[in-house]
Amino acid sequence: xxxxxxxxxxxxxxxxxxxxxxxxxxxxxxxxxxxxxxxxxxxxxxxxxxxxxxxxxxxxxxxxxxxxxxxxxxxxxxxxxxxxxxxxxxxxxxxxxxxxxxxxxxxxxxxxxxxxxxxxxxxxxxxxxxxxxxxxxxxxxxxxxxxxxxxxxxxxxxxxxxxxxxxxxxxxxxxxxxxxxxxxxxxxxxxxxxxxxxxxxxxxxxxxxxxxxxxxxxxxxxxxxxxxxxxxxxxxxxxxxxxxxxxxxxxxxxxxxxxxxxxxxxxxxxxxxxxxxxxxxxxxxxxxxxxxxxxxxxxxxx
Amino acid sequence: xxxxxxxxxxxxxxxxxxxxxxxxxxxxxxxxxxxxxxxxxxxxxxxxxxxxxxxxxxxxxxxxxxxxxxxxxxxxxxxxxxxxxxxxxxxxxxxxxxxxxxxxxxxxxxxxxxxxxxxxxxxxxxxxxxxxxxxxxxxxxxxxxxxxxxxxxx
Lengths: 302, 154
Known about the structure:
The complex is a heterodimer of chains A (302) and B (154).
Chain A: H1 14-29, E1 40-45, H2 50-62, E2 66-70, H3 84-91, E3 97-102, H4 107-114, E4 119-124, H5 130-144, E5 151-155, H6 162-171, E6 177-181, H7 190-198, E7 203-206, E8 218-221, H8 232-238, E9 257-259, H9 280-298
Parallel strand pairs in A: 1-2, 1-3, 3-4, 5-6, 5-8, 6-7, 8-9
Chain B: E1 15-22, H1 26-32, E2 42-49, E3 55-62, H2 68-71, E4 82-87, E5 90-96, E6 102-104, E7 124-129, E8 134-137, E9 143-145
Antiparallel strand pairs in B: 1-3, 1-4, 2-3, 4-5, 6-7, 7-8, 8-9
């Protein structure tokens, strides 16, 4: 992975995913390693993202590196009409690595072609967010002890959910069984189901959260947004059907964990937070270690 | 007197004949191949009867010979086009247009939020299905299908 940009989860092989997770584990037990000493990382967030940006900047700081950049396109030369190409040409001559979030899909791939240094995609529109998927995989492996043969429940907006699509693709390497729980209008798109069929991975679709979740090893919650519905009445009808409450977890498996890419609005009731099965905040923390691992591998430091 | 269909569009001495172009796409083919900018003789005909099906168009370009990768650019608008290479008024080679595995330029990405539609980036697609044309954008990873095909202005 040295000197290679990280743009899409599909760029990673099964072995490379495991390599990242193993290294992240090492960083979790020993977080302050000054591998990036003397290096400067460009943190270019053309659209705001507190969690991802702070997570990356923490990772860079723990590695002893320094950060330059911007957190909003309004504070960059994009306001003067500078093209993405020119911005990348310039910053890649200042920094040793670029972490980039941009609203346009394909922007990270394009940036990686223009840049003199590696690019790590921190989110390109509704397309990819590979570092999120890595931290999701890390969280799953950490809580389940393995990635293999798990019952994975994906809940909420499966049509537009970037994190859900990405997680599905990555997990396909590990022989899962998928259960999709979503409103009719936000079902998992055909192309992903076709992908699973081609790889012989079983999946089941459900219209609501019911006792079916008792079989889950992982419940991955996502937010159902009003704006995604063509009929606002339909949203009102279904909005509460995808809210996870503590009572629903009574008969769930001991090893089951609830994950959420955050921010959480109301789809996980606050009464779940006190449950030992609520893992979403630790999931976010794992982002720092996973990102440390990705940066180290891309920079050839480990 | 027997009528030769060839007489509708006169024969050339040396060059390339592109036959079986769907009539409505004649000018797209001319643009894609840059034939509107060359200096040698071109003749073309549209709405001609076709034995295969419907109405066809035909282009005859003098003194120009195409490489495979050049001619395959027209495969999206003329998937059944047939090339005849002419030397001394004789057909010396025939070939069929094939859809290549990647397409650079020519086609727009159907996703309005793709970087190619917002910055000066040449489009780049992987052809994932040749029968029912489906192109995956190298940048935004979304698929543009046959009916969504729109061509870049040249």
